[in-house]
């Protein structure tokens, strides 16, 4: 690793001012699982690290407008085990549980996984399907960006120089809705996905047809991908084999996977269609379960 | 670009001056003389460097020592009390939970973290918590048996 200066400010304002002072030479660090690994491999060599770890309250997970707001410093493990997240948005707790190992989830943070903008990460996929928004703070103030628009390219996000991710706001699903996260892992349970799909389905009042669906995929392009054409095919329809097939075909046209040791691009494209079918079915069944009155 | 940091390591207050780029693993091994934790993969995947930071297991090979300033670290050296092995250590010996031994400090620390949180874990919980602790001798069944044995003893 290269030599660098290290600051651990106690307030966000102080962190922003240190970051502004050092410009491109500075990087923000939280859990360090991504940044320290990249520094050890000499992929990045910042001259200045600004740690967010000593800023009190930045790890808070709280109720917000029926959904949840998760502070940037919350660890993956804290999200996964949060009773509030488990109760309001169980698919999000389940998604965080699928990342790496307990040990890494004790370190990796929510702000970190968003700022890292690695298309192979699990949480952004589900956050996109849920319509979550990233909260950012810069010298000029606050702004919010949909998670869907936050990833720009491989390891590149919409984060402007001098900005810090402060949290993510996740809305609750409407009534008569269900969600699912399907991670295709043919190798080991702590691996990155070969293909990952998050789906949400909201049913019409008739309890049979889909009013709206959202589909997002990971590990099949340089950013997480939202499959809007497939969503449009599903809206207004009843779930059957023909619909799942059509949605899968639309997804194949939307993804752009890379060939690597987890599979060829052609294989991943085929598996994306299969996993979309499974995710839609699971989300649909969950929606039916939530629409049915409890006996 | 050196920093003086204070850590509580295995219950003892330690102060050490280190370069900012020192990983927690290298700080423990080279600056504090605690060579029990090992470097395997160096990227947080294999588990050989697992230590507890404020009671939670982490990969010390991708943690900066400066980020542990003011915190508590537990390594494998901190488990035995007065020559008496920790129940997890004794169970690994009794049930044959190690072969070459390189992964053992990480396995033992992870098992301790598990049993501290869940004193009587199911096999599924053992697998979930121990996931990402690679044993190249592939002695996984004996490791799981050791943890089951340690849990039973602690519950008696």
Overall number of structural domains of chain B = 2
Q: Strand percentage of chain B, roughly?
A: 15-25%
User: What is the molecular shape of chain A?
Assistant: globular
Question: CATH H-level name of the largest domain in chain B... which superfamily?
Answer: Beta-grasp domain
Radius of gyration of chain B: 15 Å
Query: Which protein chains make the most extensive interface, counting residues with beta carbons within 8 Å of the other chain's beta carbons?
Result: A-B, 28 and 28 residues
**SSE order of chain B, one letter for each helix or strand:** EEHEEEHHHH
CATH architectural group of the largest domain in chain A:
2-Layer Sandwich
Q: Mean pLDDT of chain B, nearest integer?
A: 96
Mean pLDDT of chain A: 96
Distance between the termini of chain B: 51 Å
Task: Kindly report the CATH topology of the largest domain in chain B.
Answer: Ubiquitin-like (UB roll)
Notes on the structure:
The complex is a heterodimer of chains A (295) and B (156). Chain A has helices at 12-22, 35-40, 76-80, 83-88, 90-97, 102-105, 110-116, 123-129, 147-150, 228-234, 241-254, 265-291, and strands spanning 5-7, 26-29, 48-51, 61-64, 67-71, 133-138, 141-146, 151-153, 156-157, 164-170, 177-184, 195-203, 210-218, 225-226. Chain A has 295 residues and is an alpha+beta fold. Chain A folds into three domains: 5-51, Uridine Diphospho-n-acetylenolpyruvylglucosamine Reductase, domain 2 (2-Layer Sandwich); 61-170, Uridine Diphospho-n-acetylenolpyruvylglucosamine Reductase, domain 3; 177-291, Enolase-like, domain 1. In chain A, strands 4-5-10-6-7 form a five-stranded antiparallel beta sheet. Chain A has a four-stranded antiparallel beta sheet with strand order 11-12-13-14, sandwiched between helices. Chain A has a three-stranded parallel beta sheet with strand order 1-3-2, covered by helices on one side. Chain A is globular and about 60 Å long. With 156 residues, chain B is an alpha+beta fold. Chain B has two domains: 2-78, Roll (Ubiquitin-like (UB roll)); 87-155, DNA polymerase, domain 1, CATH 1.10.150.120. In chain B, strands 2-1-5-3-4 form a five-stranded mixed beta sheet, sandwiched between helices. In chain B, a hairpin with a 2-residue loop joins β1 and β2 (12-19). The termini of chain B are far apart. The chains are: A alpha+beta (295), B alpha+beta (156). The A-B interface holds A 1-6, 8, 29, 32-33, 36-37, 39-41, 49, 51, 53, 77, 100-104, 106-107, 189-190 and B 1, 3, 19-21, 23, 42-45, 47, 50, 53, 56-59, 62-64, 66-67, 69, 110, 128-129, 131-132.
